[in-house]
Structures are given as C-alpha cells and as structure tokens.
Amino acid sequence: MAAYRPGVLVGNWQEEACLEEVRLRDFMRKRERGELLIQKINKLQDNILKKIQLSVSKDGFLHFGDTVMLLNPDNKSSAENYPGACGNLTLAINLDEISLYSAESVQAPRGVSAVASVDPVGRNTFCISRVDGGAVGEPIRFGQNFGLGTTGGFSDQMLYLASDHKSFMRFAKKSYLQQVFLTDELSYLTCWQATFLDPQLRLEYEGFPVPANSKIIITHCHTNRNLAVPRSFWTSSYFGKEYEVICHTYLDSHKAEEDKNYWVIVTGNPSDEDGTMIDRPNPHPGGTRKNGFHEET
Predict the structure, then answer these.
(1) Those residues with Cβ within 8 angstroms of residue 108's Cβ, 6 or more apart along the chain or in another chain
(2) 189 with 162: CB under 8 angstroms?
(3) What is the tens place of the pLDDT at every residue in 13-52?
(4) pLDDT, tens digit (0-9, with 9 covering 90-100), for 226-277
(5) Is the omega angle on the peptide bond into residue 109 within 30 degrees of 0, that is, cis?
(6) Spatial contact of 47 and 41, defined as CB atoms under 8 Å apart
(7) Residue 89: pLDDT band by 50, 70, 90 thresholds?
(8) Which residue has the higher pLDDT, 277 or 108?
(9) Which residues contact 259 (CB under 8 A, 6 or more apart)?
(10) Residue 81 half-sphere exposure, CB side, CA atoms within 13 Å?
(11) How far apart are CA 277 and CA 241, in angstroms?
C-alpha cells in the first residue's frame, strides 16, 4: 500500500479551508473598521496619553473654563512614613485592564487615582466648569461651587469628578472610606469648593479669588469632606503604581488639615507652551509666600 504524499488531503480539509477563509475576511473587515484589539488599545492610548496644553493664568487666579492639573504636592510625612510614595502626584482617570482592552473611549462611571506623572496629558487634565451660573473667564472664589470635568483626551463626552456618602455598597476599595469617581451626570454630587489653607484665615478669605499654583483645600459640597491622597493605599495598573484618591478630612492635633488634603491647581507656563508652572524655577531664593507652592527653605 502506497504511503501518503504531502499533496494528499485528509480529514475535514474543505471545512478547515472555508473556516480559514472566513477568519481572514473577518480580520480584514475589522482592520478596515479599526475594530482590532491592538487598534483599540492604540487609539485609547493616543488619546489618554495625548499632550494637553494647560491654560495660562494672566492675573495669577483660577477661572471658569481653565484647563488645569490637580496636584497633591510632595510632603515630608509621606517621605518618612511611605518612602516609595514620595513625590508629586496628579489626579488622573483610573483605567483598569478590562476597560483598556474593551472600550474605545472613557465610559462612566469611572474611578480616579493619583499618579506620579506631572506632565499634562489627557488622563490627568481637568476643566473647571460652572455649576451656579458663573461666566467663563470669571475668577473662582473661595466658598464658590465649581465642577471638575475631563474628557480623557477624547472630544465626545465630559465626565465630572464626584463623590457620595459611604455605604455598604459604595466605598473605596482599599481604605473603605468615601470613594471618588467620575460620572456623566451633573448634580450636587459633582460640586466642589476651594478652601483657604490656613483655618484661622478662612473667614477673611471667603469670597476672594482663588490663586493658581498655590496650596489649597478642595472640599466636596455634598458631604463636606476634603479630597485626599493618603498615599498608604495603592494598586498596580497598566500604567504602573497608582494611589487611591478618597474624600476624607485628615486633621492634626491643632484641628488643621494634614498634607494629605493639600492640593495645587496647576496652570500652564506662559514662557513655555508645553510646560507647567511647577516647572518654573523659584524666583525667591528664600521661598515664596506662605500659601505658595514652594516651601520656605
């Protein structure tokens, strides 16, 4: 009996050939439509990691409509207690691996986290929006409500930073405290206020414009708790190590907020299109004003 030669077709060769042809046609159709997994990931990364130009403050204050970064500044306590968590952190959209592989744009609801990157890109830039009728370009004042929205680098849907009271079903995954998230619905849950850093001077500064690039407290209107990065809770994501962001007021022995609640709303550098104000050298060798971003040395 003669042995089989390479040209002999055995088994369900006709079905396998047709199936391979169908797979090829399906691949070509998805590639033309941009529906391949690698194309979705590249598109998502191109948007969320796209370079964003921050708004430049000409008068030194924050205004409605400004594109900014929310930065939790480096502090001594984090360097002592959590050596790996030292450095400046910025508020950013939290993209888990499942959503990264399945979504073509940022969908609500979506979590937020604090990342070590201080370069303004799609995932860590926010727009200060109006919630009580303030005009675009008008300065934001201490005690005035405002919203923080982001598109994640896309041009379609705006997501707003929000929070709500902790419950049995709704809480932060690591600390079990009040969670912070992004939603596409404007409500009182998306309202925030800027509070002056020094508790003894808050009444005097009520109604004054909020300075840009200075340490402030960001308070959630509905729960009256402050935006915070405890730096003791972190997760590993597709982009590396990211820290949990919550709403919780941390007070020291003097009933003043701790540095976990400190935030700097960063604007663009007028002398460098792609730079930020944190990239500028300190013009005062001895330090800036008391509420300034640079600490006295």
Answers:
(1) 157, 159, 182, 183, 184, 185
(2) yes
(3) 788 888 888 888 888 888 888 777 777 777 777 777 888 8
(4) 999 998 888 887 778 889 999 999 998 988 999 999 999 999 988 877 778 8
(5) yes
(6) no
(7) very high
(8) 277
(9) 73, 75, 76, 77, 78
(10) 11
(11) 25
Question: How big, in percent rounded to 5, are the helix, strand and coil portions of the chain?
Answer: 25, 30, 50
Q: How far is CA 80 from CA 83, 86, 87, 232, in A?
A: 6, 9, 12, 12
Q: Are 142 and 208 in contact (CB under 8 A)?
A: yes
278 token code pair: 């944190």
d(CA 210, CA 62): 6
Phi, psi for residue 205 in degrees, rounded to 5: -90, -5
Q: Which residue type occupies 198?
A: D
Question: What is d(CA 122, CA 108) in angstroms, rounded to the nearest whole number?
Answer: 16
Please tell me whether residue 111 adopts helix, strand or coil conformation: strand
Residue 290 has pLDDT above 60, yes or no: no
- For range 151-162, the mean pLDDT: 82
Q: Is 201 helix (H, G, I), strand (E, B) or coil?
A: helix
Instruction: Report the alpha-carbon distance of residue 70 to residue 293 in Å, rounded.
Output: 13
Torsion, Cα 241 247 251 255, to 10 degrees, reads 150
* Torsion angle, alpha carbons of 73, 226, 158, 145, to 10: -110
> What CA–CA distance (Å, rounded) separates 227 from 262?
8
Backbone angles phi, psi at 222, to 5 degrees: -70, -40
pLDDT digits (tens, 9 = 90+) for 129-152: 998 766 788 999 999 999 999 988
pLDDT given at position 297:
37
Q: Which of 41-50, 101-110, 116-125: highest mean pLDDT? A: 116-125
